[in-house]
Amino acid sequence: MLPSPVTDLKTFVPARDPELSRQFYTDLGFTINWSNDQIAEFQIGSFRFLLQTFYVAEHAGNFMMSLAVEDADAWWEQIQRLDFANKYPGIMCRPPAMQPWGIRVLYLSDPTGVLWHITDGRKS
User: Fold this and answer.
1) Largest alpha-carbon pair distance within the chain?
2) Where are the alpha helices (DSSP H) in the chain?
3) Are strands 93-98 and 12-15 parallel, antiparallel or unpaired?
4) Cα angle at 32 between 30 and 33, to 5 degrees?
5) Residue 112's closest CA among 67, 30, 53, 72?
6) What is the third-level CATH fold of 12-119?
7) Among residues 83, 75, 67, 78, which one has the least CA distance to residue 115?
8) Which residues partner with 44 through β-bridges?
9) Cys-Cys crosslink for 21: which of 15, 50, 65, 105, Cβ 3.0 to 4.6 Å?
10) DSSP character for 51?
11) What is the number of alpha carbons within 13 Å of residue 32 lying toward its C-beta?
12) Dist CA 22 CA 26 (whole Å)
């Protein structure tokens, strides 16, 4: 039994270069609700996360986020149209593909190395 109802849950995403990461997420379609020198809250739809000025290579390289969308192909088209691979050198951009565990995943890493799994749940 919970001592009190849960009203929110957010993760703290690391950022090596906060300004570059803020631009990346804004380009991807997130909005900044508020920010200061150390942290910023990003939102897309009703979902939010906190981008923090924090970087440890081992942590960032193993940090993953999952974003479920209706159409991963539409997200891929936007990522290509905005030329993310050239605008943010060194990031990983892989088109949606069926994974052995039965989910289509578009892989996208941010400038810090955080890996996003953008999924749409299609079976084929």
Assistant:
1) 50
2) 18-28, 57-61, 72-81, 84-87
3) unpaired
4) 125
5) 53
6) 2,3-Dihydroxybiphenyl 1,2-Dioxygenase; domain 1 (3.10.180)
7) 67
8) 47
9) 15
10) E
11) 16
12) 6
Q: Which pLDDT tens digit goes with each residue over 13-25?
A: 999 999 999 999 9
Query: Taking the CB of residue 10, how many other CB atoms lie within 10 A of it?
Result: 12
Give the integer Cα–Cα distance in Å for 86 and 92. 11
Which residues have CB under 8 Å from 76's CB, separation 6+?
A: 95, 96, 106
pLDDT digits 0-9 by tens, 48-104:
999 999 999 999 999 999 999 999 999 999 999 999 999 999 999 999 999 998 899
Closest CA to 18 of 39, 47, 48: 39
Q: Give domain limits for the chain.
A: 12-119
Q: Is the separation of the CB atoms in 15 and 53 below 8 Å?
A: yes
